[in-house]
Amino acid sequence: MHLSFSAVIEILGTMAFTVSGAFSAMQKKLDAFGVLIIGFVTAIGGGTLRDVLIGNTPVAWMRDLSVPLIILATTAITIGFKNHVSNLKITLLVFDALGLGLFTIIGIQKGLAINLNPGICIALGTITGCFGGVLRDMLLNHIPVLFHKELYAIPCITGGICYILLKPVVEPQIAEGVSVVVISTFRILSVRYNWRLPTV
Amino acid sequence: MHLSFSAVIEILGTMAFTVSGAFSAMQKKLDAFGVLIIGFVTAIGGGTLRDVLIGNTPVAWMRDLSVPLIILATTAITIGFKNHVSNLKITLLVFDALGLGLFTIIGIQKGLAINLNPGICIALGTITGCFGGVLRDMLLNHIPVLFHKELYAIPCITGGICYILLKPVVEPQIAEGVSVVVISTFRILSVRYNWRLPTV
Amino acid sequence: MHLSFSAVIEILGTMAFTVSGAFSAMQKKLDAFGVLIIGFVTAIGGGTLRDVLIGNTPVAWMRDLSVPLIILATTAITIGFKNHVSNLKITLLVFDALGLGLFTIIGIQKGLAINLNPGICIALGTITGCFGGVLRDMLLNHIPVLFHKELYAIPCITGGICYILLKPVVEPQIAEGVSVVVISTFRILSVRYNWRLPTV
After folding, report:
1. What is the ipTM of this complex?
2. B37 touches chain C (CB under 8 A)
């Protein structure tokens, strides 16, 4: 039950990340293959970078065929129904925020499993959640929005600290669930109220 | 005989990829070292990314000194004879297309050797063939041409499917040879007739 | 004594690289988190790429918490005292050049330790010294200055050749010290006298 709940969020998160990449690619007038690759990189980039940095290879998407298939199907649907998909803005924001939360916690767990320092694990979780979007922006020749426009990393770090603090004192599912909710809620509120970090 | 034939194509392909990178760098007015690095990244970027993703390290060019030496010599020749090299446009296109074909098949073989799913192996072969050019374009601050201007990946995927289908039923050299020819021919025709994928 | 001298240079070099990244990020009006990430990537990017290419994972900064902490503190100081830090231009150039020298030699040593060819080790050292700046420029959407504006790699290669030649004939500390001085001095002179490689 616990596993399958995480699995559902992982699928919804992967779909939301793919849609975000595919839309950015369509705005830049890429061809269908370019849209697929940008969707793919947005969805799996963070986890792939994490796996490469810790030496967990072949990287995750090569061992679990369901992820590439979900991305392929999501890209096809996004291209086919692009006018309708853009009406799902709020639904997608929620899925995206849930995915951000779950991917962050998964990244932290992978770091803890190889005994990295908790602070490093939070960085690793944040990389997992956020760097697919950084790679998307690099491929599309933007400065990553993560660095100047939107609040992605601060929610991940906040939720990551919650997870590290809760894990020794409550059941694993509760630590996970609470942290995912903290990250998602913080992310959604930051979009809703247009929170920004100050430039310096 | 078979091995040495592949080896010749690999050298010609490496040279053609290096020339393509070096020319792009010269158009951007980079210095001699920049031209070398862009040539180098274009030639070995795809195979390096493949090796990093599957954990095959140290990456290939670090273990086979002949590859860096060929790239160094090719860059020097390209800089020294830049006006003459640009007359070799068609020769370079043929070598580039043969290299694309061979590198794709080598990538697929590396994936099969560690028992990855055939679909993932085709993705790995396509990364091997195509991502040197993606890295070149990222370093030169373009959106990768692969994503909107030129047909690179579709020939690789088509030839990769041929290889996976032929491999169990014919001799290895024939499966390899046919697939390389499919990829190269498809690539050359796509340039000749200016085939594009639709934007979406 | 020898170790602690290297350690001091490593800390000063890490700080100088972080400041260089943080300043570039502030010029692009990034937010505080963006400034931190660009500082971080500039400081550890070269060593991280080296570790990934040779399979030395988890990469170095994940195993030595002092490095992320130094970067975090340096970024905070740079943001807090940004008007004063810019007066330290010459001090920072010296630290940056010393860091470039030391990081290059550390990269060469990591390559020699796994029996890579000495030429490849010099390339690995140059990647260690220079590619943090390349990643910084890619994230900030520039063509890397390394490729057209400044002399970074030639000093690294020159000092690397010194190190390879001296290592078998003198004591390790002397080979290291002389090579770091060669790289740093060459780098500082190239800035002072505005040396450039020719474009081609």
Report:
1. 0.91
2. yes
